[in-house]
């Protein structure tokens, strides 16, 4: 929800231009049922209505969907762990059955809307008399609301080589944690832990590494496997400035992060140096791509550690909804979880009452049991480091769901230049002497657990180590400036400094080495006389004084922040300060005294087309300098980094003294002397100053010093019922406001835009902004007012001026629209052929001026704060590849045709052209008469035209040429799939086969370049009888079929060596079929190509042949025949005798070629122009026909095209040689067993050319 916030310390009486608003929707009911309050004011647990019975949460009234049994009860057994209710759901029971001790309730868990059970459904049995669960009790947190994805990540794997002499063994594996830490340091140092994306127009760096980003394990004795996960936590990015996820995906997986890292690994230059040893990375790298690894990086959504993917199971698929409950929330032991759903470190046994600690996976640590209560900090301090010695960064513990938290990474070691050693420092928390090793880790862990500790010192005196814990107080900080100058920048007197250095003060110990560690993030929580808090606002209208600027090269943002804190803390008139840094330029600190109005909140809506900086920060193109208007002053002369004019500031925040006395401060202090007076009212600087944005203002009295005013655009949306009553309209706000005011509608005297009447009678999928009755006005005055209402609303893209409720006498109404949706029932050209439903007799739109009107093109682009609109999702996806895309040259434009329908799809309702195209194609696919869809982009809409099968044909002796007829030109032309192209006719192709009958085929269009060519397909045509039963291991036999043969689907392909068992679908011994592909409009006596090929497993589908000859037939204008033949043992098993003569696969090819010679004339082919073709193993077999005198004498083919493999004469085996090899095989037991036969040697590796192909012989040479 778009909004802007203003904080003001005055004024409740400027309400003349506002109307109070109270129309809001409460979510305390389920459907049409209403929750009932009990006498205590809470909701009764059991509710009932005509819809059924349900249980509710007594506090909130939120319930589960009603059940069908009106006699349902709540359970009489207590819920586990004495919880009062089931969050997100309820346990619903049938009436108790049985008598006495056998009385039981049968219950079930029902989750509310938006919730899902984390456990599989199972019956719940409650013993009424014993009040105990006989089955597993219901889990208190079983109903969970699936969360959105929590992370976006990409993952890479590579390997590190161990140096000579090093082996990755059990002893060596203890250093794997060291590798993880140092590899992460290396990635950070090389810039591989940050990505830069554009957030709300501002380039921002986002961290993508954490302590779990690097994992190292032993792959072998000589190699380490490294797994790197770059992970962006979506919760870290403010939703108001969330960048386009495509930009984030490109930043993660693109050339600047994962791609650059892949280049580094593949270059062979990536090395890790550890303890004077060098670990070289292999040059190969893999990236996770779904459930497998590949060579290119991919991104995927994921969940944080401990969360799992919530999967919805349907009959068709399993889809992941997002991230679900954690392991802690699903535990059955009653362990407590923290606010993030992770196991709390400290637990309490509900039975014994003893306290104990658990690790990050919920495992109980026996040595931590205690009669006294424990807190999380105590459990953490009980844990010992996993490594006793070595680099202190290796100290990792597993608590609160974090994987091996590095305590050291919470601290920064300060150099001596940032420390002042002073014996008089007083603001110290405590001192401590660790009792066990490693002492540094004890000190750091103690400070990490102590909220009062901001930094610490560690000193060593001999073998004794001691720690001093300090609070971050003003007395412990000293900031020193240098290079001071006084300048007049703009209209303000400004003090400038060239450098700033802030140091911490610690107590010195004589002669003892001292190290200072600063807890990260504590430098902004200084403790002094005043406590400051960040307001979220970025500017003030008045009250700024004593502005100070610092050079970017001489000061950091942290140091300037400390300077502001100390300056304001010591100034009795100071109530806060503004801290700002010009991007790539100087920093500014301005103190505030009684600032009246704070504005420009970080969560405010900003126009993405405008400057993303806060109003009051401008850039002068001539001087190339930034001008600031802050707190009633103007400061200029600030130079930003070149090329950052879109976002002029990298940091800008207002900090306020939380307990300020500005409301009671006497004027005698003179704190605001010389300052600009505050403006008259917050409305003048807020909503009134935002005429195009603000229509609603919410005022909250939630702070002791300020009122908070939140400004909203028009947030009203209405249902899509065409009526004059606004009862279907309601406000949509992010929260229920306490006091809301709407700006009074003041219409202009003149119409600003010229509205165009749409030539459509019906609009569906529209987004209605407002419904205004106009029956009390004249038609002309009502229309005039409707135009001005749309003028006033920047989100209005058009309006409907309608006479609705015709059955009740008619009511004139004005509907202002946010989207014009799907525009149907065109009034163009008076055509009668339609595919869209145009029956709406209850609404009059045909008589002028009634109708639908569109705002001019220049005004049609709605601001980004307008409510998002979209047409309802399609019922099924549109497969664009299955539609035939036609070129304009394939059609004829004839404006006289009338068999068409027109639809306009509003660009406001469809985010891109592809979505509008899919909508139009889907509408056409739903109607049998619609065969062609054309699309043309127009201002504000995509124009779709639907056509019946209209065409114009020219005829000749050779062929006929047909082209589609269109009413008008179009950029995109699509023809419905599986529909013959013009000239194909509507009847399926058929061919008479002599002595058999009629062969019935199908037609398909094949794209050749930019045009489409029709091809007739005759699939699964038998050329021999199925070789089954007694016909197995026999020569192919003739198949006698009569009548008609359905040749529209391919038949099974032949079994071949390598196919797995059991035999997959589409493979069978019944496979002696061929396919014929005949291009239409083909010249008579066409050439014929016979191609022998047995496809590999997985090729082809139910409707498509494994080898589709359509394209070759269309391009070559010839007939293509593909045929299967038997292979392996089914085609060439031979024992050298007449029982198993072999070569049946070769005979299959001969019979297929004979079939072609006999019947190809019926298809238009010339049997004298047959070419034999085969590839790979098929070429081995087919090449034998070149030396087969029988095949040559019968002229089965004239030419041969053999690809990839040809059988050489040396592989031919004569009958005598075959018998000789058979006898040798009999003498060799090993080969005998290898062939798998008990009494015969099977010759399958060579071709034994025996009967009946006796004519085959070796050719000389």
UniProtKB/TrEMBL annotation:
Major localization class: secreted
GO process terms (BP): thyroid hormone generation
Domain Thyroglobulin type-1: 325-379
Compartments (UniProt record): Secreted
Pfam families: COesterase (PF00135), Thyroglobulin_1 (PF00086)
The family this protein is said to belong to: Belongs to the type-B carboxylesterase/lipase family.
Cited Gene3D superfamilies: alpha/beta hydrolase, Thyroglobulin type-1
GO-annotated cellular components: extracellular space
PROSITE patterns according to UniProt: CARBOXYLESTERASE_B_2, THYROGLOBULIN_1_2
UniProt keyword terms in alphabetical order: Disulfide bond, Glycoprotein, Repeat, Secreted, Signal
Protein name: Thyroglobulin type-1 domain-containing protein
């Amino acid at each position: 929800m778009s909004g802007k916030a203003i904080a003001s310390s005055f004024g409740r009486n400027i309400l003349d231009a506002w109307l109070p608003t109270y129309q809001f929707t409460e979510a305390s009911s389920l459907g049409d049922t209403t929750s009932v309050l009990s006498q205590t004011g809470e909701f009764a647990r059991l509710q009932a209505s005509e819809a059924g019975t349900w249980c509710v949460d007594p506090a909130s009234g939120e319930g589960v969907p009603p059940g069908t049994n009106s006699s349902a009860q709540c359970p009489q057994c207590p819920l586990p762990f004495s919880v009062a209710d089931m969050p997100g759901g309820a346990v619903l029971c049938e009436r108790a059955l049985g008598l006495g001790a056998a009385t039981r309730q049968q219950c079930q868990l029902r989750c509310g809307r938006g919730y899902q059970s984390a456990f599989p459904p199972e019956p719940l049995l409650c013993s009424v008399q014993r009040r105990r669960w006989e089955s597993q009790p219901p889990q208190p947190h079983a109903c969970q609301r699936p969360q959105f994805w929590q992370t976006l990540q990409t993952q890479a794997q590579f390997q590190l080589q161990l140096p000579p002499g090093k082996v990755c063994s059990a002893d060596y594996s203890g250093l794997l944690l060291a590798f993880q830490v140092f590899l992460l340091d290396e990635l950070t140092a090389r810039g591989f832990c940050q990505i830069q994306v554009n957030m709300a127009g501002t380039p921002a760096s986002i961290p993508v590494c954490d302590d779990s980003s690097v994992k190292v394990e032993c792959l072998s004795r000589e190699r380490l496997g490294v797994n790197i996960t770059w992970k962006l936590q979506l919760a870290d990015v403010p939703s108001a400035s969330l960048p386009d996820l495509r930009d984030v995906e490109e930043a993660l997986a693109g050339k600047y992060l994962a791609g650059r890292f892949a280049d580094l690994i593949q270059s062979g230059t990536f090395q890790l140096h550890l303890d004077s040893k060098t670990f070289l990375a292999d040059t190969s790298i893999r990236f996770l791509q779904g459930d497998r690894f590949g060579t290119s990086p991919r991104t995927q959504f994921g969940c944080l550690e401990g969360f799992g993917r919530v999967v919805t199971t349907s009959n068709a698929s399993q889809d992941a909804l997002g991230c679900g409950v954690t392991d802690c929330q699903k535990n059955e032991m009653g362990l407590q979880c923290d606010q993030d759903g992770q196991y709390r470190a400290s637990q309490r046994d509900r039975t014994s009452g003893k306290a104990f600690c658990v690790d990050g996976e919920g495992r109980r640590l026996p040595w931590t049991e205690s009669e006294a209560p424990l807190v999380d900090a105590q459990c953490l301090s009980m844990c010992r480091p996993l490594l006793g010695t070595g680099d202190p960064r290796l100290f990792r513990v597993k608590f609160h769901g974090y994987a091996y938290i590095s305590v050291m990474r919470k601290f920064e070691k300060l150099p001596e230049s940032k420390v002042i050693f002073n014996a008089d420092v007083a603001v110290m928390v405590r001192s401590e002497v660790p009792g066990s090793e490693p002492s540094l880790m004890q000190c750091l862990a103690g400070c990490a657990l102590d909220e009062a500790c901001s930094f610490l010192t560690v000193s060593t005196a001999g073998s004794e180590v001691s720690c001093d814990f300090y609070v971050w107080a003003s007395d412990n900080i000293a900031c020193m400036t240098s290079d001071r100058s006084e300048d007049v920048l703009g209209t303000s007197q400004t003090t400038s400094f060239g450098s700033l250095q802030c140091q911490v003060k610690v107590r010195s110990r004589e002669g003892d080495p001292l190290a200072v560690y600063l807890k990260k993030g504590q430098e902004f929580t200084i403790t002094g006389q005043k406590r400051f808090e960040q307001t979220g606002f970025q500017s003030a209208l008045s009250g700024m004084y004593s502005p100070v600027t610092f050079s970017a090269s001489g000061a950091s943002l942290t140091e300037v922040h400390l300077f502001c804190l100390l300056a304001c803390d010591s100034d009795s008139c100071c109530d806060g300060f503004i801290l700002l840094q010009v991007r790539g330029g100087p920093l500014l600190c301005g103190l505030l005294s009684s600032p009246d109005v704070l504005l420009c909140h970080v969560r405010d809506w900003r126009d993405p087309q405008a400057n993303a900086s806060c109003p009051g920060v401008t850039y002068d193109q001539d001087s190339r300098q930034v001008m600031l208007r802050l707190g009633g002053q103007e400061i200029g002369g600030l130079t930003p980094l070149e090329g950052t004019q879109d976002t002029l500031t990298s940091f800008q925040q207002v900090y306020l003294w939380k307990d300020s006395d500005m409301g009671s401060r006497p004027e005698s202090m003179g704190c605001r002397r010389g300052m600009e007076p505050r403006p008259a009212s917050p409305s003048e600087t807020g909503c009134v100053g935002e005429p195009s944005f603000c229509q609603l203002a919410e005022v909250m009295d939630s702070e002791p010093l300020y009122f908070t005013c939140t400004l909203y655009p028009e947030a009203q949306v209405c249902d899509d019922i065409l009526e004059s009553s606004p009862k279907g309209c309601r406000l949509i706000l992010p929260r229920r406001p306490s006091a809301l005011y709407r700006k009074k509608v003041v219409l202009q005297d003149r119409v600003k835009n010229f509205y165009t009447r749409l030539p459509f009678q019906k609009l569906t999928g529209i987004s209605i902004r407002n419904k205004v009755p106009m029956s009390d006005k004249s038609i002309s005055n009502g229309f005039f007012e409707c135009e001005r209402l749309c003028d006033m609303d920047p989100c209005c893209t058009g309006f409907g001026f309608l006479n609705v409720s015709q059955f009740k006498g008619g009511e004139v109404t004005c509907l202002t629209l946010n989207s014009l949706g799907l525009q149907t029932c065109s009034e163009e050209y008076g055509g009668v052929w339609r595919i869209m439903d145009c029956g709406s007799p209850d609404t009059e739109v045909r008589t002028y001026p009634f109708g639908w009107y569109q705002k001019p093109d220049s005004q049609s682009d709605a601001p980004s704060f307008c409510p998002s609109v979209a047409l309802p999702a399609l019922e099924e996806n549109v497969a664009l590849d299955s539609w035939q895309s036609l070129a304009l040259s394939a059609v004829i434009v004839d404006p006289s045709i009338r068999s068409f329908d027109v639809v306009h799809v509003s660009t406001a309702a469809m985010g891109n052209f592809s979505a509008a195209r899919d909508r139009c194609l889907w509408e056409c696919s739903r109607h049998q008469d619609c065969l062609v869809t054309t699309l043309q982009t127009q201002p504000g809409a995509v124009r779709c035209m639907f056509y019946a099968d209209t065409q114009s044909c020219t005829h000749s002796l050779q062929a006929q040429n047909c082209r589609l007829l269109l009413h008008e030109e179009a950029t995109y032309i699509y023809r419905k799939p599986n529909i013959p192209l013009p000239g194909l006719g509507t009847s399926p192709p058929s061919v008479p086969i002599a002595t058999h009958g009629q062969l019935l085929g199908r037609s398909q269009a094949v794209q050749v370049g930019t045009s489409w060519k029709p091809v007739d397909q005759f699939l699964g045509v038998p050329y021999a009888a199925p070789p089954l039963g007694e016909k197995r291991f026999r020569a192919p036999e003739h198949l006698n079929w009569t009548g008609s043969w359905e040749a529209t689907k391919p038949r099974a392909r032949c079994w071949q060596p390598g196919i797995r068992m059991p035999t997959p679908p589409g493979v069978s011994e019944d496979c002696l079929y061929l396919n014929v592909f005949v291009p239409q409009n083909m010249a008579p006596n066409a050439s014929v190509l016979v191609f022998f090929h047995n496809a590999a497993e997985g090729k082809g589908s139910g409707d498509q042949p494994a080898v589709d000859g359509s394209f070759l037939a269309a391009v070559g204008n010839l007939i293509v025949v593909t045929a299967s033949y038997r292979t392996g043992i089914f085609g060439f098993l031979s024992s050298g005798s007449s029982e198993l003569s072999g070569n049946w696969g070769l005979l299959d090819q001969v019979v297929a070629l004979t079939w072609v010679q006999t019947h190809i004339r019926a298809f238009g082919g010339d049997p004298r122009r047959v070419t034999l073709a085969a590839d790979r193993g098929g070429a081995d077999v087919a090449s034998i026909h070149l030396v087969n005198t029988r095949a040559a004498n019968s002229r089965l083919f004239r030419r041969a095209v053999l690809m990839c493999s040809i059988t050489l004469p040396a592989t031919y085996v004569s009958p005598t040689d075959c018998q000789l090899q058979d006898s040798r095989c009999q003498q060799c037991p090993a080969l005998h067993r290898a062939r798998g036969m008990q009494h015969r040697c099977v010759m399958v590796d060579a071709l034994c050319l025996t009967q009946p192909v006796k004519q085959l012989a070796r050719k000389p040479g």
